[in-house]
Model the fold of this input.
Amino acid sequence: MSLALETALEEAFAGLVNGNVHQSVLPDRPRYPAITFSLIGSRPDITLCGPSTVTEYTYRIDVYADTRKQTIQLATTIKAVMRRFAWTNAPEMEMDGYEPELRQKRRTLDFAITETAGVDPREQRQRRA
Done:
């Protein structure tokens, strides 16, 4: 897990949903719209010369809102936000869902993010903007 990467994601998404960004799960009494993100896998890059400083992380981003239209709009904005980061990232999957206990629509996005150790993604984002 990369703390710098997770901090950058949280900061980037906070303005989209009035700060309702949470790691892994929603709180007991969430406000909507809301975003959660979770690390669902990682794979260090191994070269013929041995280990490198590059790791590929897979993050799942869930968007919760009252309507499907809202989840699609937020998902579209998240994809635009992700393109602004300097690290290499690629959307891998996107799907709709519904949380019956919460009575909320959900849109799930998975991203593969390649990060180089020791390089702060927030600094790179600012240089690119």
Q: What stands out?
A: Confidence is low (pLDDT under 50) at residues 124-129. The two ends are 25 Å apart (CA to CA). The chain has one domain: 3-128.
